[in-house]
Specification:
Length: 359
């Protein structure tokens, strides 16, 4: 059975038929596909996250406040502490570890002015300033990320502000506007400045969250009657210009794109539309799979099976809920899916190859 599973790897990687790939090798490849949240302002060799990184964890995501007790710090206290933490994290891994954050500006900033970091205006405010102002703002943001050891930012948002009743994008000022060209122009500056500082940008939220009425953190979001194809325009431009390395999926449902699954779990959206039609060749990462739009409707095994088979390369578990998901749980589940031929090993190999291109 294992020989059968290993055959795709041998073919794709041109490894000699005499070479062996054991269970541990496959588990490390699965681990590389995971970005995990954890609690701790500092870490040591006894901590689970330390052992996870030793096991090949692909990345971590950092937060300031602990959502289960907002009086407590989760990961980020101040610049001095953050630099030490990211250095500790990076030094564990033999390979480059992705250290991620949500630092859009405005309300979505994990590195806050009140904690000694530089403030960045929200996208809506920056969009009424000129490009030179935007460039200076994002140059400062990117420099701050780099100097604090953060190399992956879940930004910029390229959702269009097309729905004035949208609570998670429009009303929070997270979009540069309704016009796709303007959104692309300002988002491009964000991406360019981060690239100069070796910070990977992640466009979000594919195929568009700006027309939604509900919040996917809280539950099911149906955009069937509000979404339009113009929400794909920023993605088309970035992909055409080969200026995007990473895209994040949205937990939104559109029966015109897939009458069964939300985008994060949809082969029609992630492979047929994003890969084949739009031509995206980079890394596709899920939004947090513990958000209620997913976790209230699918168990872990089903979520992992659908996400990987849909064409997703990285799986984000932010661990912002009271019940945390462990790397072992994820790896064991995916390994079981491979053994049962519910997920092809080729999906794991392809994802690892794409991730390696980032590092």
């Amino acid at each position: 059975m294992l020989k059968k599973l290993l055959l795709p790897f041998l073919l794709v990687s041109f490894i000699s038929a005499n070479d062996d790939l054991n269970k541990k090798d496959i588990e490390r490849m699965i681990s590389k596909m995971v970005v995990l949240g954890f609690k701790g302002e500092s870490i040591n060799s006894n901590d689970e996250i330390y052992k996870n990184i030793e096991s090949g964890l692909g990345g971590v995501i950092l937060f300031d406040k602990d959502p289960t007790n907002k009086k407590k710090i989760k990961n980020i206290k101040d610049p001095q502490q953050l630099k030490l933490l990211t250095s500790q994290l990076q030094n564990i891994s033999e390979e480059k570890l992705l250290i991620a954050i949500d630092q859009e500006g405005g309300i979505v900033q994990r590195m806050k002015k009140s904690n000694g970091f530089e403030d960045t205006l929200k996208a809506k405010t920056i969009s009424i300033k000129d490009i030179a102002f935007a460039r200076e703002s994002y140059k400062n943001l990117a420099t701050m990320l780099n100097s604090n050891g953060v190399n992956l930012n879940f930004a910029p948002v390229v959702d269009l502000a097309v729905n004035k009743n949208n609570k998670v994008i429009y009303k929070l000022g997270r979009s540069y506007g309704e016009d796709a060209k303007k959104v692309t122009q300002y988002a491009s500056v964000f991406v360019e400045e981060q690239k100069k500082q070796n910070v990977i940008s992640v466009l979000k939220h594919f195929p568009g969250h700006g027309s939604s009425l509900a919040d996917s953190h809280k539950g099911f979001v149906d955009i069937t009657n509000t979404w339009s194809e113009k929400e794909l325009e920023p993605y088309k431009e970035f992909i055409k210009n080969k200026s995007v390395d990473m895209i994040m999926t949205a937990h939104v449902f559109n029966k015109n794109l897939d009458d069964k699954y939300p985008a994060t779990l949809s082969y029609n959206v992630n492979t047929k539309l994003l890969r084949k039609e739009l031509g995206f060749e980079g890394v596709l990462i899920t939004d947090d799979l513990q958000m209620y739009a997913i976790s209230k409707h699918y168990d872990l095994r089903t979520t992992l099976k659908l996400a990987i088979n849909s064409g997703v390369n990285m799986l984000l578990f932010a661990n912002q809920q009271a019940k945390e998901v462990s790397l072992k749980e994820i790896v064991d589940t995916v390994y079981s899916l491979i053994l049962n031929e519910e997920v092809g090993l080729d999906k794991i190999i392809d994802s690892n190859e794409k991730i390696n291109m980032l590092l």
